[in-house]
Amino acid sequence: MRSDVVVVAQPGRLSRIECRGALAARHTEPDTVHLVSAAATPLGGDTIVIRIIVEPGARLRLRSAAATVALPGATTTQSQACWHIEAAGELDVDPEPTIVAADARHLSELTVCLEGIARLRIRERVQIGRTGEREGFWSSVMRADVAGTPLLRHRVELGPASVADDVLGTPLACVSELRYPEPATDAVGVTLDLTKGGSLSTWQGPRLYS
């Protein structure tokens, strides 16, 4: 199944929302939208496409109502989520964690295009497995540009056969946080300042912290 969500934030009015498939979005405050599952997703074979546009002078906080649980499907274990972000205003994206359950494989791709006086915070939290599970695999690719100039190219993998897979201590949880234009001062993990402004903070461990 393919699910599509489009959120367009405009100054002085509620965001325009378009949804199709197993994922919906709802206004919860004047500048806040929550993603809500209308059916079980992502299952193996599912594709989720989320497009966010923040116009100049607009502000948007994007959240989710619950954690996302990626599960294997009947014919394939792989699902994917593609995020496309165009921001010229203020955007804060902080959904609940993604849990990659059983032997599911979940691939995430995030493309960000910033213009003008955009302000951005994106936090991604991932856990491989529910209690007692270690077989899942997750891969994330993040690309961010400012006015067409590269800001960040970042890739992370977790789980068996990932680049971090090690019998002595395989990380099964990850938190990544991108800030722009000011670097983060309160993010967990290691924070690296970016050449064009902002920062990338990363943390890995066995389980997500509270």
What does this structure look like?
There is one protein chain. The strands form 2 sheets. Strands 3, 4, 6, 7, 9, 10, 12, 15, 16 and 17 form a 10-stranded mixed β-sheet that branches. Strands 2-1-5-8-11-13-14 form a 7-stranded mixed β-sheet, with no helix packed on it. It has one domain. It has no helices and 17 strands. It is mostly beta strands. It has strands spanning 2-9, 16-20, 23-29, 32-37, 47-54, 59-64, 68-70, 78-87, 90-93, 98-100, 105-114, 119-128, 137-146, 149-158, 173-180, 190-193, 199-205. 38% of the residues are buried.
Question: What features would you highlight for this structure?
Answer:
210 residues, mainly beta, seven-stranded mixed β-sheet, 17 strands, 0% helix, 57% strand
Kindly report how far apart the N and C termini lie.
32 Å
Oligomer: single chain
Percent of residues in helices: under 10%
- Gyration radius, to the nearest Å? 17 Å
Average pLDDT number = 96
The number of distinct helices, counting runs of at least 4 residues, comes to: 0
For the biggest sheet, the summary is:
10 strands, mixed
* SSE ordering: EEEEEEEEEEEEEEEEE
Q: Point out poorly predicted stretches.
A: none
Q: Any idea how many domains?
A: 1
Return the structural class: mainly beta
Beta-strand residue percentage? over 45%
Global shape: globular
Number of strands: 17
